[in-house]
Batch of 3 targets.
Target 1
Amino acid sequence: MNVLFSGLKHLMQQEDIDYLTRVGFNVAFKKNTEEFDDPTWPTVMVGFKFIENQPLQHFTNLRVLQLTSAGYNHLDLEYIKENKISLHNARGAHSIPIAEYVLGKILEVLKDSRFYQQCQNDKVWDRSKPMKALYQRRAAILGTGSIGQEIAKRLQVFEVETSGFNSDGRAINYFDHTYPLHQFSDLAKRFDIVILALPLNEQTNQFMNKERLLSIQNEAILINIGRGQLINEPALIELLDSHFSAVILDVFEVEPLPQESPLWDHPKVIVTPHHSSVDPTSDLKLKQLILDNLTAYMKNEPLINEIKLNKE
């Protein structure tokens, strides 16, 4: 059985490669930008974009794709479905650091950390601006998967009222309330904080259009750690001067964010480079998930985190 790792040489140590060899795999590594000569060789591929210069159709013997991300919208899902390739994501591997990022940025805004950092830089003792509490605020989390649940769990420690939005309003742990996603606009004015943790699909692409952005209360904090395409960026930029107390963005429609984007310089916006999931503990969880799924495949046992494409 042959497994091809794309761009993951840093993650898998020699002991991991030795283990995979013992359970029956032939193991190969390629950088994302390198071509792989034998299209019939890989039975399993592990990575994010896989081999960038070669489409999946190039690999004619694929049976399993193991992603290193939770998202999978960048793949040719129709081809994967038609060819009965088993697709698995890394749900849960990155959820905790992303949730900590969200909590940290909310507190950074409420405690006005930028202002006080500038005061320190200027050696100015200025107590004129009050800090705000997170306690008993209301948060909407759009997307109630692993990331959304970890965010809600941490917000509840601060006694924040958490409302989750998913496809059908089903109840989910750590949320005080859950609603169908289509009801968001009707309820948006309730929330002090709006967090986007949705997957990207036909229903969520450009979900935050101008109308929905305007439905959010003026002084709310807006956070996107899902996918850049969840927000209509031109509409957001248009509304920044009159709407929102802060906008925290770790993902963008175009990445890297172009230098000419007004988002870089707007005083209400905090920009980070799609980096909220990066943490050594995430790498360990991701590696274990990969090893567990490869072992299960070799033993003909069920793999975890399967994406059911017939529901797409």
Target 2
Amino acid sequence: MKIVITGGAGFIGCNFVRMMVNKYPDYEIKVLDNLSYAGSLDNLKDISDKIEFIKGDITNKEAVENSLKDADAVIHFAAESHVDNSIENPENFVKTNVFGTYNLLECARKNDIDKFLHISTDETYGSIERGSFKETDRLDPASPYSASKAGSDLLVSAYHTTYGLNTLITRSSNNFGPYQYPEKLIPVLIKNAIYNNPLPIYGDGLNVRDWIFVEDNCSGVDVVFHKGEIGEVYNIGGGNEKTNLEITKLILKELNKPEELITFVKDRLGHDRRYSIDTNKTKALGWEPKWEFEDALKYTVKWYLENKWFWE
């Protein structure tokens, strides 16, 4: 099988590519990535001889067409994903996440691609006080980032309904693990704590997220790709709901740093209070997360300590 993986040099993408080349050595993997600030060929250096890499942007029609030639499937990770950046500059998020996805869908349709898997986020559902969102629940995004992802989700679904494109969508909770660019919560906290710098926490620190170790998300995407029902959406979550303050204290404890480093800052605009997703539909395909949260967090802290080349 010939698979194009967009965004394969980024955080989740590189972990997924690494898993795929090791698990399916007969697959031909082509990575399309524009190598923005959050993506790097160094993230793939240990498997560079097992993949084909194309530097290109999904907003560029020619780059997309060249990449998808002779492909059987597309797994679409490429996205602008940092909420704070979307608040400051929403235009980039609409261009990449909506128009870029449109480019891929059009090319996939015209090239009769067998399967198109779109990677999305639980943030498209918005905040929930109690219970957990199911795949059939209404989308209610709060930030320009989550709105752009919701728009791309709906485009993907429309291409299935209108054109019969064989699509799948996964919506995962907050990922963490190796190769995450140090702008997201956990790597920022680890980096700052290592150097005894203040750990900035929005608002009262009680915003809740469900956390999933990146390898568990990748295995979930793999299961959905191979076993998911065409046209369907699948939630992938770790079942680890933690407040930002809880996460911060766990990292400080692991690094033996004082809680006095915690610094509360002005809350993010439109900050969702709690995310939670129901993953029973994905588990029915035979998937389960393997990592215990505390073990995965310790592993992640250790990885950042041992791989300062990645973030210094």
Target 3
Amino acid sequence: MKIYFFRTKNQPIMSWCEGVKGVLLDVTGVLYNSGPTGGAAIEGSIDAIQRLKTSHIPFKLCSNESTETRANFAAKLTKHGFNITSDDIVCPVPAMVDLLKQENLRPHLLVHPDVLPEFASISTENPNCVVMGDCNTHFTYSAMNAAFNTLLSMSPKDRKLYSMGGGKYYKDGDDLVLDVGAYAKALEYACDCKMVVCGKPNKLFYDQAIRLLGVNIEDCVMIGDDIISDVGGAQALGMKGVQVRTGKYRAVFDEPHSEITPDGYVDNLAEAVDLLLSNN
């Protein structure tokens, strides 16, 4: 079943940058491109972040990053030259841990080894759900099959599958690679269950980021390279959504997109920040 996102207001394409009081930014494909050797900052993005830091407009990095802790993620961005701390980042792992505690869930974890310490306070004995994150090369057949059999061991009505993100793919170096959402969809199909996304474009995840910004949702803009999770997901909640032509953006798919009309397109984060600061 397709999910269609619609713009909540009929606005001129350039009006997205007017009256903005808060900014959410995707990271991979917007600030930097990931890669086998650590990736590289996208041209102009380091200065763009610094200009936002010194402006009156608050921002948060709203990422589905689930291969490392917030502290390590912030350290990696700092190494690339960004003036970023872990407090600037909203990502799914802490939200997922909170949900597991609230719902008294015991997960079978299909996550990257580097984030396992984040789940240290959670019991994994006799699992009653499966939690997935971006495992990169750890998405092996045996790992997927173990998660599959864990779900099958539950009665159909009790099968709970959580995915820390719903993306189909992202850019890694020069290549596009499958994201966690694609693997979660495979388990969803095989086990006749419905995955719950703890990350973009989930409403609760976006609501958390908006609360941290301290602004009304209609006064916020989401800037990202994923036209579905970033742009469409934000628009569905009443935010403005802006597509960057960096990262995994592909003109043949994204401009125009068959289902989603961004409030604006920009060549990169630097252009977006130029427009924001000159109109607010």
